[in-house]
Design a protein that fits this description.
This protein is of the alpha/beta class. The protein folds into 3 domains: 50 residues, lambda repressor-like DNA-binding domains (434 Repressor (Amino-terminal Domain), Orthogonal Bundle), CATH 1.10.260.40; 120 residues, Rossmann fold, CATH 3.40.50; 133 residues, Response regulator (Rossmann fold). It is 42% helix and 18% strand. The protein contains 13 helices and 12 strands. Helix 5 packs parallel to helix 13, helix 8 packs parallel to helix 9 and helix 10 crosses helix 11. It is elongated and about 85 Å long.
Length: 330
């Protein structure tokens, strides 16, 4: 056995059972307990490692979930994935992360549709499901996280409301001019609709109060790098007591860093609201709009497991409300 790959037939022969019985043990099927124990001991003795792909082709359960996401470097996505994995681990499932960080990786997914069929479910995190319109056909349950679609089970945040909350909070302060730091991601698979909804809610709220908000009050920034220091410095110095809505906490952090270098105090010389409630924001004293990241992952996993166990179960769309976390910067 040491000189060749151990197969399921070797296990069956050694244990004195049929291949089907071994397969049922591997897939948590119905087998007498003494038989199950004997097969498990034989597997350990022979050092047999199941071929997950072969098991899937044979109709077995791979116990794997394909996780599609636009990137893996942000705190948001890692927290989301960690909470998702924690939940599916309770069912002995594991995720396969596939970040769509380039057109090459996207094409590889589209041109090899069998890849998405080797799993029991797909979770799409902060990516539009329209990616499947280009040819890939998924026959397993799909759940969306941070995206709403009527024809999918999904969990999502009301980002329009998040923008309104930020505006209403800043309106309570003695502000002479409002700004927003907005980003259009270079990665086409990063869902930009969230940013659009946030700024729409922000602008509409200001307008409803009779406050003029023009295009020159929007500072455009690279999604990964944020706005330039020069742009931030100009915003902070050309206006007394500006009110700033940064559409990610990372953008807000850059504002706080630049302000520190020129001696401006948040909550006094300017007012700042971020978005996400990342782990560092409490210590930094940043007022922010919280996204329930861990709940996204947990509930998204629960929805997917529901559909894996019962593909005919009704679709469920669960909306989470954004929450204002008040701190020193306002």
């Amino acid at each position: 056995m040491k000189n060749k790959t151990v197969t399921i037939r070797d296990v069956a022969r050694e244990a004195g059972v049929g291949v089907g019985t071994v397969s049922r043990v591997l897939n948590s099927g119905s087998v007498k307990e003494d038989t199950r124990k004997k097969i498990q001991e034989t597997i350990k003795k022979l050092g047999y490692k199941p071929n997950m792909f072969a098991r899937t082709l044979a109709g077995g359960k791979s116990k794997r979930i394909l996780a599609l996401m636009p990137e893996v470097k942000s705190e948001f996505h890692w927290r989301l994935l960690e909470s998702f994995d924690h939940e599916i681990d309770k069912e002995d499932y594991q995720s396969i992360i596939y970040p769509l960080i380039s057109k090459k990786r996207y094409d590889a997914l589209i041109n090899n549709p069998s890849f998405a069929q080797e799993v029991e479910g797909v979770v799409i995190m902060t990516i539009t499901p329209n990616i499947f319109d280009d040819g890939i056909r998924v026959k397993v349950p799909v759940v969306l996280i941070e995206e709403f679609r009527e024809n999918y089970s999904c969990v999502y945040l009301n980002n329009l409301k998040g923008g309104r909350i930020a505006a209403n909070h800043l309106l309570e302060r003695d502000i002479t001019k409002f700004y927003a730091i907005y980003s259009s991601a270079a990665n086409p698979y990063i869902k930009n609709e969230h940013m659009k909804e946030r700024i729409t809610g922000f602008k509409n709220t200001l307008k409803s109060k009779g406050i003029v908000f023009t295009e020159d009050q929007i500072i455009y920034a690279d999604y990964s790098l944020g706005p330039s220091n020069e742009m931030i410095k100009l915003m902070l110095t050309e206006t007394k007591r500006p009110g700033i809505f940064a559409m990610t906490d990372n953008f807000a952090l850059l504002v706080m860093q630049v302000a520190s270098t020129i001696g401006l105090i948040p909550g006094k010389d300017f007012f700042l609201v971020g978005y996400d409630n990342q782990t560092w924001t409490e210590k930094a004293g940043l007022t922010t709009i919280e996204q329930p990241i861990e709940e996204f992952g947990k509930v998204g996993a629960q929805l997917l497991m529901e559909r894996i166990k019962n593909p005919d179960a009704p679709l469920r769309q669960i909306e989470f409300p954004p929450l204002l976390i008040k701190r020193n910067t306002t």
